[in-house]
């Protein structure tokens, strides 16, 4: 925030800040002078420092996680000289439709502060995501209208004017890898680049990163995977080949589950399937243009990073034989297939299962 010499108050909108920063929470209103607003800063997307859609409690806030401010009165906070923030500004009469309050982007205790830093560091994108929920406390009229820049969050929930969440980072420099040989992907399985001819790293190295940097051969948040490029592509092709993609059923979590299974069990007959061979024969760019192949790459990344195991610990993976298991009998074989349904670990909707089963039976007859 910047102030001119005549001390006019300015409220430039910000979309992100660092943990520990002091910021101003500003509400612009119409016809609500003197009314109290209650605003909660809530966890967005998924659980990080609070459960999704629950308020985050910052220092000097109400323990419920809310901030109460009065429209037209600014804030009760004092500056370093003990003067009220609102009364010191020459344009105070033009702020009658605003309410604001300054606060710190940090929890009450130093121990919690360190926990929040670890949460940011352990997160995939190295950020916390928040949004704002507003209520009018004083005799709220049924005709009150909330003008929302992000309609997807609900009528009284706000992100910012660009419709994105407010971001908090830990203020430390992001890990940037540059001019290093290797094959680079993002967490969604998208191929970003292959770098060769540099002094650092090997052409066979594989990295996952958040995104490409602005400069050439620069990658943000890069992590080296414990594999080689050939093994990486081979394993991803196996997950693709053993999935139901050949039967027009594309399930991200099935493919992720197969990748996790084959991290524990290296025996995989699907590695020689037509679909696995087709996967390996394509270029990295071509694979990135096919959603199921991107899932296979992302699933292998997830398995190598010990991410969520959607197989629930399965050590084997079965395909066509599952469609022949009688629903009303507890047997181990139908004479052609050995049933291993208890190690499957894959949930599928009834609709997709029926389609999948029909396709398998047609192709196996």
TrEMBL record:
This is Uncharacterized protein. It comes from Chryseobacterium endophyticum.
């Amino acid at each position: 925030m910047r102030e001119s010499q005549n001390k006019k108050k300015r409220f430039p909108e910000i979309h992100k800040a660092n943990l520990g920063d002091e910021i101003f929470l500003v509400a612009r209103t119409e016809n609500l002078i003197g009314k109290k607003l209650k605003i909660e800063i809530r966890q967005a997307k998924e659980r990080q420092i609070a459960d999704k859609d629950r308020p985050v409690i910052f220092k000097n806030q109400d323990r419920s996680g809310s901030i109460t401010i009065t429209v037209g009165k600014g804030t009760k906070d004092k500056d370093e000289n003990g003067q009220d923030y609102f009364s010191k500004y020459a344009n105070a009469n033009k702020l009658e439709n605003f309410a604001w309050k300054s606060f710190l982007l940090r929890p009450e205790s130093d121990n919690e502060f360190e926990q929040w830093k670890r949460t940011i560091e352990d997160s995939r994108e190295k950020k916390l995501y928040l949004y704002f929920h507003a209520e009018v406390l004083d005799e709220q009229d049924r005709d009150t209208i909330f003008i929302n820049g992000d309609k997807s969050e609900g009528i009284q929930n706000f992100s910012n004017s660009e419709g994105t969440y407010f971001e908090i980072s830990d203020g430390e420099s992001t890990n940037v890898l540059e001019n290093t040989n290797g094959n680079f992907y993002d967490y969604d399985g998208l191929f970003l680049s292959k770098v060769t001819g540099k002094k650092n790293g090997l052409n066979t190295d594989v990295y996952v990163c958040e995104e490409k940097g602005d400069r050439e051969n620069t990658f943000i948040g890069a992590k080296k995977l414990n594999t080689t490029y050939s093994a990486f592509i081979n394993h991803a092709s196996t997950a693709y080949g053993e999935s139901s993609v050949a039967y027009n059923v594309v399930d991200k979590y099935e493919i992720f589950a197969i990748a996790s299974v084959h991290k524990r069990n290296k025996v995989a007959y699907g590695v020689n399937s037509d679909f696995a061979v087709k996967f390996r024969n394509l270029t990295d760019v071509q694979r990135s243009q096919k959603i199921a192949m991107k899932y296979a790459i992302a699933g292998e990344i997830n398995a190598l990073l010990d991410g969520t195991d959607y197989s629930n610990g399965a050590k084997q993976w079965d395909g066509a034989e599952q469609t022949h298991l009688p629903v009303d009998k507890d047997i181990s074989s139908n004479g052609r297939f050995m049933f291993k349904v208890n190690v499957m670990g894959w949930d599928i909707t009834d609709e997709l299962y029926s389609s999948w089963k029909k396709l398998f039976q047609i192709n196996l007859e």
